[in-house]
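# step 3/5: fold
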Amino acid sequence: PNLFPYAAVAQPFPDPAAMRPPVPGQWPPIDPPAIPPGMSHSKTTPMAPPAKARGLEEGAEAEAGLTDKQRKRKALMPFVIISLSYLLFTITDGSVRMIVLLHAYNLRFTAMEVAIMFCLYETAGVFTNLLAGVAGAKWGIRFTLLFGLSFQFVGLGMLFGWNPSWTKGQGIIYVTVAQMFSGVSKDLTKLGGKTVTKLVTPEEKQGQLFKLVSWITGFKNSLKGVGYFIGAACMSAPLPGLGGYYLALGVNVFLIACAIPWAATGLSNDLGTAKSKNATLTEALFSGNHNLNFLSLARLFLFASRDLWFEVPLPFYLRAPSCEVIGRECQLMGDGEMGCPWGGTECVEGLCQNINTGGGCGGLGLGRVLVGTFLALYIIIYGQMQAAVPWLVLKPLKQSPPNKWVEIVWGLLNSIPTGVLFVVVLFSTPFIQSYFSEKLATMIAGIVIFALIFAINSSIHSYLVVRYADGNKVAQSVGFYYMSNAIGRLMGTLVSGALYSSLGWDDYHNSLIGNNVNVGIAWCFFAGTLSSVLAMLITFFIRDNDAGLMCGPMTCVSSSEEHGKAGKDAEGGEE
C-alpha cells in the first residue's frame, strides 16, 4: 500500500517531441515549443501545474527531508492511532456484554432469552462485516472506524433507558435492538484494527506481520477481559437502586469519548481503500479467493466451538446456585439484615430462593464480581497467549509463520478440552454430588487449557486471513472473513441458549428451583467439540501445502511443490 502518496507528476504537452527538455525545478520550461501551424498559442502554451500536483511535489520534497526514523514513525502512525481507538473500544465491548448478562440474570431472564438479546448483535456482525469491507475499500478505514465508535454511543444510550418494570417481551425487544447497534459498532471498529496491520507491513516480511497481528489481537482480548471485570465491578458497586448499572454504562461512555478524537484527527481518508478499482457488494459476497473462502468457513466453526458454551451458558452456570442450598433458612448477615450467603440466592419469607429459576441450579453460585473476574481472567489469559504465540509456541516448533498444516494440528487439539469437560461434567461424582471445590477446580483447569489452545488457533487464523487477503483489497477481504466469524458466533449463541435452557429437567429439577445446569452445560461442551472437529476438517481444503509441517526437529508433513509457489496459493490462484 502506498502510505506515502507523493510522487512526481509528469504533465503532458501537445507535442513532446518538439519540446526542449525542461530545466529541473522550472515550471514552465524556459523555452516553450514553437506554435504548430494552424493552432493558436492558447492551445499549446503549457499551463501551470494544478494545485494538487504542486502539493504532491511539495509533499515529496518534505518527505525527502525526513530522516529514516521520522519516515518509520510517520508510516506507523496509522497503526498507533487505530490500535489505541480499537483497544479503548474493546474494553467497552467486554464491559457491555457483562452488564447486559448480569442485569438480565437479576431480572430473571432465562439463558435462551438472553441469547435472543444477543442475536441481533451477532446478526448485525454478519452484514456489517460484509458491508464494512466494501465501505472500507471505497472510503477508507477512517470512515468505518468513526462510524463504529459513534454506533457504540447509540447502543449505550439505549441501555440507559432499559426499564426493569417492562414485561419480558418488551425488555427482550428493546435490549436486542440496543445490542444490534453495539454489534455494528464492534465490527466496524474491528475492521480497522485487523486491516491496519497489513497496511504497515511489507509483503516480504510475513514473520513480522504474524507477530504484529498476534500482538494486537492478543492485547485486544486482554483488554476485553479488563472490560468484563470493570462491568461486573461497577454493577456490584454499593449504590442505591440501579446505581451500579448506570455507573457501569457511564464509564463506558467516557471510554468511547476518549477514543474518537484519535481517529477523527490523525488518519487520512484514503487509508485502506482499494487502489485498482472500487469493491462491489457482489465481489465481497462471492469472493473468488479460494483460500479465503475455506478459511472463512473454518473460522465459522472455530468460533462456534467456543461460543457454544462460553458467551451465555458459562456466566449462567457460574451464577446459578447449588440446588442443595435452595430452601434453607436465611441467615443474619454482616449488615444486620437477614439474607443468604450463597451466590445466586435471595431471602424470601425467611427461606433462600433461587434469584433466577430460569437460570437453573446446580452451578457454582458465585457472586457478580467473581463471575466477572472468572470471565475476565479467561479472556486475559487467552489474549496474552495470542500475543505470545509466535515466539513462545510456534517458533520453537518451527511452525512460524504458520500455514494450513499448522492450523490443522492445533484445530484438532482444540477439540480435546471441551470433549473431556463433557464427560467429566455429565458423569463424574463431584458434579453429580455437587462438591464445590472439585467442580471449581475442574472447570478452571479445563477452561484454561481450552483458552491456551484456542488462543493459538485464533492467532493463526488472524494471521492467515491477512496473508491470504488481496493486498489492494485487504479491507474487503478481512470484512468477508469476519462476516463468517459473526455467523459462527450467532450460531453458537443461539444453539447454546437452547441447549442450556431446555435440558436437565426432571421431577426434582422443576420450575420451582430450575433445571439441572450440569446437564445443559455438558451438552454445550459436546456441541463445541463437534464444531472444533468440523473447523479442522474444512482447513484441509485450503491450498497452502508448499511449506509442509515441522514439529520441532521432525518433519510431520513433507513440503510439496505441486500447487506452485506459496504466494500464488495464498492468493487463491486458479487450478
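# step 4/5: annotate
The chain is about 65% helix and 5% strand.
# step 5/5: archive (pending)
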